[in-house]
User: Fold these one by one.
Assistant:
Number 1:
Amino acid sequence: GENVEQHPSTLSVQEGDSAVIKCTYSDSASNYFPWYKQELGKRPQLIIDIRSNVGEKKDQRIAVTLNKTAKHFSLHITETQPEDSAVYFCAASWDNQGGKLIFGQGTELSVKP
Amino acid sequence: NAGVTQTPKFRILKIGQSMTLQCTQDMNHNYMYWYRQDPGMGLKLIYYSVGAGITDKGEVPNGYNVSRSTTEDFPLRLELAAPSQTSVYFCASSPRQGNTGELFFGEGSRLTVL
């Protein structure tokens, strides 16, 4: 089955710096890769997703890149703000519209003012 | 729309007891899921359902059972609770259509087994 590895487990940056979180997946059939943000004590919420027919996707300060050959994808957050502090999860699915999502272990991002 | 509603929010069980976590959604989503979240371990898929009457195992199904008799409801049953089942449980649903595979999560149910 699919296995998703996420690194680093914790990340601390200064406000205004960029943050990068990386994930690798094992199943070459996976074709849908979302990222979720979970604030302390809250439910996870989708922030951006990418499909295997696209190499990069941007939404304001966040972007995701996908390298199908290497089977890894990354989340990039630019101009970080304190409200970006949260746990971020990557996930992968063989189903282009969600289906059986397998999550990475999570990255706790701390943005220091 | 209330979205995805889970009950109870908190529960303490004794070893060997059984209970059902309730999950209902009012968005007419076909797909529903149960995940558990342990500290530092991410979200592990327990069971999922692609529609009423259809369920399938996820990554960690042992010790749990589910049913999907209606589109709206997807209860998770814990039989013979064990300390290893202490976790936060999230129910989620997805429309599985259009351009998004977004999962809509409930608020979570914190279960402690003592």
Note: DSSP finds no helices and eleven strands in chain A.
Number 2:
Amino acid sequence: QSALTQPPSASGSPGQSVTISCTGTSSDVGGYNYVSWYQQHPGKAPKLMIYEVSKRPSGIPDRFSGSKSGNTASLTVSGLQAEDEADYYCSSYAGSLYVFGTGTKVTVL
Amino acid sequence: EVQLVESGGGVVQPGGSLRLSCAASGFTLSSDWMYWVRQAPGKGLVWVSRINSDGSITSYADSVKGRFTISRDNAKNTVFLQMNSLRAEDTAVYSCARGASYRLDPWGQGTLVTVSS
């Protein structure tokens, strides 16, 4: 049960785009279309941003988008805003188990 | 308002036990998978356990298997995590979340478990 691999940090200026990768294996990310992404601000509970690779829950702006290719999923945040500065975690179903990514801190410059 | 509230955390000595509770309000969790996730101070999210709607299917992370037990009481709209043989490395904020189609939403605010002598 190894954690999915994410870059520790990513950054962009307001209005720019940032893409975060999430690399797993054929037993998790590559094997199922059940990748989710969560946003967590300091001291707050995680918030679901993307589920089933590319679907957005109601209320999540379309600036957030998800995709997957092989064993790697990606989250793109377009039109960066100050409030997007947070930690982001991917997750995946892994055949009766569940696994999170290592987390990426997004900084808005 | 859909809400999950955890309780039962605290300070416990190594080898000790704690039972966490996760109470739902604003919705009935009897039809949902439920998850426990933990986050050590300054660290990332780690999945701990999950249970299906009627409690007949459970799974655990290797790090807690054999020590932790997840259960639920749908009549009380509550999910539990019994933690035994606690270790220092179990120190974390433990959060519960509803898990439909493997997406966790909503999450509770969590309860802090500190394992220390």
Note: The radius of gyration of chain A is 13 Å.
